[in-house]
Amino acid sequence: MGGLDLRASLTTILFMRLLRFGKKGQERPGVITEQGRVLDVSACGYDYGEEFFCQGGFSFLEDWLLRHESQCPVVNLNEHRLGPVVTRPSKVIAVGLNYRAHASETGAKVPTAPKIFMKATTAICGSGDDLLLPEGSEHTDYEVELACVIGRVCRSISQEDALSAVAGLTICNDYSERDWQKNWCGQFVKGKSADTFCPLGPYLVRATGFDFDSSRIWLKVNGELRQESTLSQMVFPLDRLVAEISRHMTLLPGDVISTGTPSGVGLGFEPPRFLRQGDWVEYGIDGIGETRQQVTCQKSHD
Ligand code: ZN
Predict the structure, then answer these.
(1) pTM for this prediction
(2) What is the whole-number distance in angstroms between the Cα of residue 134 and the centre of ligand 1?
(3) pLDDT tens-digit map of 8-17
(4) Distance between CA atoms of 198 and 201, rounded to whole angstroms?
(5) Binning pLDDT at 50, 70 and 90, where does residue 3 land?
(6) Which of 44, 167, 226, 248 qualifies as a cystine partner to 264, CB 3.0-4.6 A?
(7) Do 64 and 114 belong together in one domain?
(8) 86 in a domain, yes or no?
(9) How many domains does the chain have?
(10) Residue 302 domain-assigned?
(11) pLDDT digits (tens, 9 = 90+) for 102-118
């Protein structure tokens, strides 16, 4: 490969984003280059799960692409569904009340340590998939959040080293059934785990070089802006979250941490404004991407 070609490829790689495309359960790994070309990289031998991240994730794929980019099939994304950006992880951990204004709209105090809970991994879906309102649900709410994917095994990692253990960043909409979350006895997990309550995507981007200070995070319902903030408003930054969570459990490559939502959730309105069948939920984070989902009834999907 000549010097010029090599430089061109390196530029492509530095800004590449990962995605998964295809029917539910049959997704294939892909990359989107800085120029917007989408390539099928299934020939690299890994889907984006634990083994892929153990192999080095982005770095592994960079090396592989330097040798194989020209042989990768080009994908027309208009013809494919986008799947979740990772295969099913060992766990999804979410962080509650991590923006001051959101804590105050829910009537809660700002936590003095990260408040964490789990979401079932069966709730994971593609970022453009329909949100299915669970049967009997009248209080389903949205929460746009920055999510990270862990890149290596972490046990009691220091805050200083924590970002180096993050493989990449994506967006999670931490959908929540507020009645089930609060009033059905027990933990948040009941209201956080219905099928489709954890879309992940549209892309996975590198954490290295990401602008955690000024990146805007936003969400609209039917075109109306409901949530808008910057990631700098997080109470506990990402490195603190990863360090703290890894003190309490082992984080495996591919695990997902969703880092909390800004103010503007449906619960915060008086009266509350929960999601209804037919609503469109659009959201995004600067530097990662944006997506939209339609709200449908569980029954219409059975
Ligand atoms: Zn949340």
Answers:
(1) 0.94
(2) 18
(3) 455 455 679 9
(4) 10
(5) very low
(6) 226
(7) no
(8) no
(9) 2
(10) no
(11) 999 988 999 999 999 99
| Count of positions (residues) in the chain | 302
Q: How far is the CA of 55 from the centre of ligand 1 (A)?
A: 30
- Burial of 233: CB neighbours in 10 Å, binned 0-12, 13-18, 19+: middle
CA distances from 195 to 48, 58, 119, 123, 134 (A): 21, 29, 10, 4, 8
Instruction: Give the end of a domain, one of 30, 57, 79.
Output: 79
Return the ∠ at Cα 145 (arms to 257 and 35), rounded to 5°. 95
Q: Which tokens belong to 255?
A: 């695990």
Do residue 161 and residue 60 come from a single domain?
no
User: Do 162 and 239 touch, CB atoms closer than 8 A?
Assistant: yes
15 and 106 in one domain?
no
Whether 258 is in a domain gets the answer: yes
152 CA from centroid of ligand 1 (Å): 24
**CATH number of the domain to which 255 belongs:** 3.90.850.10
Same domain, 208 and 61: no
Question: Containing domain of residue 40, as a range?
Answer: 3-79
CA distances 65 to 10, 55, 101, 103, 135, Å, are 10, 14, 43, 44, 45
The residue from 79, 100, 135 where one domain ends is: 79
Rounded distance from Cα 179 to ligand 1 centre (Å): 15
Distance 190 CA to ligand 1 centre (A): 13
CA distances, 212 to each of 232, 257, 302 (Å): 6, 16, 40
224: tokens are 């109306």
Please tell me whether residues 62 and 133 are part of one structural domain. no
